[in-house]
# Entry
Amino acid sequence: TLVIVGSLNMDLVVRAPRHPQPGETLIGSSFQTFPGGKGANQAVAAARLGAKVRMIGRVGQDAFGDALLATVQRDGVDTTFIRRDPQAPTGVALITLDAKGQNTIVVASGANGNVSAEDVRQSAQAFEGADVLLVQLECPLEAVQTAVQLAHQAGIIVVLNPAPAQPLPAELLQMVDYLIPNQHELTLLAGGISDREQAIRHLQAQGVRYLVVTLGEEGALLALGEDRLILPAYPVEVVDTVAAGDAFAGAFALALAEGKTPLDAACWGNAAGAIAVTRPGAQPSLPTRQEVEQFLKE
Ligand code: ADP
# Structure
């Protein structure tokens, strides 16, 4: 069983020939809505691979909130601990895609910004019998910190995907069992150190035990103490890299919850990430268990 404390967003995507100038109105060509948010994406990623997932978070009392709850439920995520915020609207991401596929994104966190330490404490039941806590940084840090503390004290494995990246206190990093940043996040967490090895050592000195750095088309790097291991990426045809990191994190956490070794878990992450980049969209691109198992066999 997995507990996820995280965000749920509705992605609102317009396509336009180019990005508008300030003050300009452009006529676009299409509008689509997609369920998203790193928390929800990772919850769906793990649930689709067969995990029992309990999610803690907030959506508004609006139609986007209804839609987001329905989509994660369809994949089997337990939404008992997701609150309907009485004041704030559901989080949205306003995405403009130009003809070249370049995007600009503005996120209004809405209800995600109200997920509190109190929310987590009142959801203590969600942690009962759980194997792994998986968190990201799209909800307030106090909620993340409270969840990590609760899990750590209960002997639940703590996995943190530090996205979007922000500097984190050492007290938090010390309670994290597995930290999964991408290269960009690794640099930011290490206070701007761009050399990979130096950044890893910097974080280890702050108490991070196990680092799993996702390297995009280069795969993933495992770092424990002095040991380093690179798992090369699976060669695939890239269609859309959106949610590759979410696929990796969800699959990695699921595999740990099933008692797999960190190396095996990273293989699951690598496979799920590779499959996700071959398909468009965030949640629609996340693979099933059968697909990942098939992939790992080949
Ligand atoms: P993020 O999406 O957070 O930036 P990455 O780009 O590092 O994260 O991708 C996460 C994981 O997805 C990688 O570690 C890898 O397993 C897989 N992946 C990403 N891009 C590719 C690719 N081009 N080919 C194969 N696998 C990929």
